[in-house]
Amino acid sequence: MENQPDSPDSHPQPVLPDSETLWQQIAALPRPVWILAGGMFINRFGTFVVPFLTLYLGDRGFDAGQIWQVFGAMAMGGIGAMFLGGWMTDRIGRKNAMAISLLSGAASMLLLWQAISLPQFLVAAFFSGLTHGMFHPAAHSLMADVLPVDRRVTGFAVVRWAVNLGFACGMAAGGLLADHNFAWLFIGDAGTSAIFGVIAFLTLPHGIRATKSESHWLPALRHMARNRRFHALFFANLLVASLFFQWGSSVARLVVDLDYPKQVYGWLMALNGIMITFFEIPLSRAVRRFAPRLVIAVGYLVCGIGMSLNLFADTWVWVAIAVVVFTLGEMVSLPISSAYLVHLSPDKMRGRYAGALGLTWNLGNSIAPGLGLVIYEWHASVLWIGTLGVGMLAAIVLWRGAGEEGEDDSRQRGDGVPLS
Q: Number of structural domains, the chain?
């Protein structure tokens, strides 16, 4: 019989270690989590290209419409990657899928570096989206496999800590490299992806693997079709993803239009990673006592408020304030949403569920950067006011779209405890 969406009583309530200190909870995380954290720090430190791609293409003479096409091609590759990566994750194992993604992603960065014409950029961007996009379902699923239920929020927060520490350092370095020579961005990105690919293949476990018959997409899609809470998370995440992608497109253009060098943009984006490095883990611990959907919805709303503050930007200070507020929303929502997704999905469908949710980021990437640039060039204030509306709508969709079962949420906490 096909798996049905989980009910609140389908899993036992875990004993949550409230008596443990934060450091004791971190120290108790299993070894694969630390390997993932270390490898993702290396990889994110070298993820230079995409945040600076708008500026790179602008320097090469491409207009907003052409830049939109490149981001759209990358997103189309990412959409394919979610289906392919979700299937590979459940069928051939988590670490194999990660290694394939990282090593082929390194090659895609070198192809993007060598592109000259718009058609070449479109092909290279599609390949980049396809290869890089396969990583997320595998990494998310392996984390869920190795972490006990009561450690999941902490585990996801630790890995995000490593990712954002690498991002903060990488953005600061990337700004310097971009002002000097864009070629080093592509070389650094490819090199760090290849290094992590080797680390993943040699050191990580396979995780849960489904049989050939269990790994088909159709049963998973049927399960998702009946999972109302997943629908709400999917559409809310799609909305908020459009906010995240403005940092690499419209905000990048805003900083340049304020007559600051690329280095300033790099430091402003690094502020996001610095804040997450210092504050996300304790903040995740503090908010997990509340209903997960409420926490995620509030975080999404704060992201919209933060992005809208760029409306007042006449110096870098206002952009920095926008980064701070947006990052607060991100820190509140994303670790909880990662744990929440785990318990909306059966064990042997985790890769496909993560792949399906990953579609929201790729769909957002296909539309939001280019559309944001077009609106920014037409009337910037309309863009920034609109982002506030998007954040509000995402919060409403998540909270109200899952139905009237808020009392179930109120009995649970944000530790990844199963919720209908």
A: 1
